Amino acid sequence: MIQMENEHLRVIVDETDGSMQALIVKGDKYGMNWLPDQDAEPWIPAWKKWGLGFVTIQDRKYRWEKGDPVGGGSRSVEYRYRLANRGTEEEEDGEFRALTLSVLRRLEGEALEEEFIFGNAGERYMLLDEIGIYSTFYDAYPVVSGDALSRRAHMHIWTGGGVSYVKCIRMSAEKPHLAMLTVAGEVQEYQVEEKHSSNQRGVIALTGKHIRIASDKAYSVKRVFFAYADETDFHRKVTKYSGYPYLEFDLMAASVGTRVQVAVKEAGDLEKLVIGENTYRPREGEVVSFVLDKAGTIEGKVFFGGKQSAIRWYGIPAIDELMKRRAEFIVSKQQLREDGDIRNGAFLPYDREADRLIKVEDIEELYASIPDRNDARERVGMGAFLAAHCRLHPDTANREALTRYYSFIRTHIISEDYGIWDSCFRERTAKYYGETVPGTKDMTFRGFNYFFVGVFLLKMYRLTKQRMYLDDLVGVLGKYFGKFPLSDLSFGLNPREVDIALKEAGMTEEAERLACHFKDKAYAFVRMEEQYAPSEVNYEQSTVAGVVMFLLDTYRLTGDRHILEGAHKHLALLEGFDGCQPDFRMHGVGLRHWDGFWFGHYELWGDTLPHQWSTLSAYAYYRYYQITSDKTYYHKSIRSLNANLCLFREDGSADYVFIYPHKVNGRSGHAFDPISNDQDWALYYYLEIAGEA
Fold first, then answer.
1. Phi and psi at residue 530, in whole multiples of 5°?
2. Phi-psi map region of 339: left, alpha, beta (phi>0 left; psi -120 to 50 alpha)
3. Which three-class secondary structure state does DSSP give residue 163?
4. Which tens digit of pLDDT belongs to each residue from 356-388?
5. Residues 459, 429, 543, CA angle at the centre, nearest 5°?
6. CA-based, 20 to 30 A from 362: which of 441, 533, 556, 692?
7. How far apart are CA 168 and CA 150, in angstroms?
8. Domains of the chain, with CATH numbers?
9. Structural contact between residues 475 and 452, judged by C-beta atoms closer than 8 angstroms
10. What pTM did the predictor assign?
């Protein structure tokens, strides 16, 4: 073990291979190691630890795994490596043997510098298709207890070319935070490896592409690590170390025809901005204003200090028309209409590539998770969106489809005693959870399903004003509160809206009874503080957002300041999931990284940016804005909402998510997943907010 230390940072390097084992900010009361604990996270292979990596030349991948120390002291250390084609005994070609690598780490002031120097000792130029450096911070979701969140971080990754960084936010939201910035060399992509669980982010490889090194020359990738206090401090330090300007964006996704702005807070080495076909040369303190003049991605570039880096906006097609066509698509393509099939009237997932509905019997032996592609659960979002949309935009065909859907839900999903079945196939679906004997598992076990169905019933009442929907809602919520603990993390139902609807229908006694349950649940969340019990994921954005939503809506119902004060801590936790990267898919969007596997067509793990549950954060921010009049949260809400609209196509079809990493476990990523599954919750929450904004 080799230690380096100054008044700002402490660094530990593994003397056997030169990888970095620990990076600790001095003065941090938790002494947090920002790198993964090798004992607690044994899933990280030894050859993928921090600072090891690979070079790809055509179809060959060479790794550096074991280094030799060649110098250093109390504030610096250097290792040299020989690269090898792992898993083969073949003799390396002469061109490859000419590639050398030195890794130098040194403490300089408040920063740690880390430099990878690739040398070409050959007689001709060398072309490296990829250089991948393993750069995994401690982004894993623990079973939350004690100060666990104070010892983990969310990684917000940006690979824009001329500037790239990993902005880490401590999960507990407490300062200081930590960032790593590439100041020499280019990083255009990132890859995820060893990702096999919802509770860990995987191993991250930051990847440079198409590097040419002349004979007897070298190519350097240099990174600096620094602590920061908040987002402003982060951007200023990025400018300080790289010359990249501190830019502030109002919206990165908005309707076509919207005028958006880029403010130059600090110019750094800014030369020009190129946005579409237009060039701007703003100075510090100036604002660039332009119109999103087309639908789809609008590319931009920042030129600074002889480098260039990407920016991406998104022009949203006419939103009313987009929603209208989506509603038509759901009714015409995703509602099963087959007499004799128990699912008649249900909304099912849709395979956009194959142009067909997905039925569980057709995929039983083809996917890891069948329930996440069934006839209920999150798919109820289609019914919720359609009911909300139909109230604002009456349509006879959509109304008839909703009547058919309610019949399916009432007959096959809501049980006789108001439990919510996981699927219309009821006990028979226990086999998808590993139960071999029917009847041994309670298939009304999932709290989330109660709130999803509750949302649909509430919206059907608001559409029709028929009391039967509220009778069902009262029954479902009565069953929910009798079956699940107050700390259950189900989300999506608005207590205040329930109360208003019940009182409007003259159901005052039921309203008062449920208001007591809602208040008790809110108090349980306040007492919980940050000690989240494990749910389907140990700790995640949607459950934190759900807690904030519930607390704020219950405060609006009761006026109880204790509930509002309790929401503040959870709100701070929620904001840590949001990135600030200059790409509409990431900017202000809550981080998730497992849904593509469980719900998607391609079963790809990795960062889903955007994913529809990030609109839960948007809803929470909007409610906080309503309560406090703090417009910061209004803008945060709109950013997240608008980003999710890229999932919906102008023909009415939809993609489930965008898988952002360029590779995941060796498979191609950076693409939309072509299954229409439960992304319509994004449209539902858009209507929830837009209807009040």
1. -100, 10
2. beta
3. coil
4. 999 999 999 999 999 999 999 999 999 999 999
5. 50
6. 441
7. 12
8. 2-231 (2.70.98.40), 248-316 (2.60.40), 319-484 (no CATH)
9. no
10. 0.97
